[in-house]
Amino acid sequence: MKKQELKISYFEYDSEKELTNDDAELLQKAREITDSAYAPYSQFYVGAALRLKNGKIITGNNQENVAYPSGLCAERVAIYAAGAHYPQEPIEAMAITCKSKTFHVAEPLSPCGACRQAIAEYEMRYQSNIKIILAGETGKIRVVSSISDLLPFMFKAEELKKV
Q1: Would you name the residues annotated as active-site residues?
Q2: I need a surface site. Which of 30, 47, 50, 149 has the fewest CB within 10 A?
Q3: Where are the alpha helices (DSSP H) in the chain?
């Protein structure tokens, strides 16, 4: 047996003012879309905004359902909308933020496992990293250069594609 260690690197910013203009705009779009999330059960509102290679910004927010597994996270709403409307355009960056009516979100929250795998699929599809910008309502902002920083042992479909 051999013990292995895994490290990730990320950037941490004290405020949006430290981000590039493009990344600050993306985070602002994610913040705006949280207001129209459908979250009557959790009161937890998540917004995602992604920037395509052509510069187009696509947004999504969480959509809950009384049958909880039927809802969909903001990240996948945005990714699947981009895939449906702009199937040839790679995703360059994604900003994800959240807020709650029942508590203050002061730390960046990371996507759930299903969303991480969906983001990974689009990185593999376009053979291009997706920068991910994570923010709470206030506080620090974390940025990773690829979903592999958040999902190091991701499922890859290479074996499924063999003839």
Answers
A1: 75
A2: 149
A3: 21-34, 74-85, 113-126
159 pLDDT more than 90: no
What average pLDDT does this structure show over 90-105?
97
Helix 74-85 and helix 113-126: axis angle, to 10°?
Answer: 30
Cα–Cα distance, 61 to 157 (Å, whole number): 27
Q: List the one residue out of 121, 140, 161 whose CA is nearest residue 16.
A: 140
- Residue 12 corresponds to which tokens in the numbers above? 């941490």
> Any idea what the Cα angle at residue 28 is, between residues 77 and 42, rounded to 5°?
50
Rounded to 10 degrees, what is the CA torsion of 87, 71, 24, 138? -170
For the full predicted model, state whether its pTM sits above 0.85.
yes
Q: How far is CA 158 from the centre of its chain?
A: 24
Placement of tokens 């405020």 in the chain = 15
The model's pLDDT over 109-158, given as tens digits with 9 standing for 90+, comes to: 999 999 999 999 999 999 999 999 999 999 999 999 999 999 988 887 77
Q: Output the six-digit token pair for 22.
A: 């493009």
- Edge-to-edge strand order for the sheet containing 11-13? 11-13, 141-144, 131-135, 91-100, 44-52, 57-61
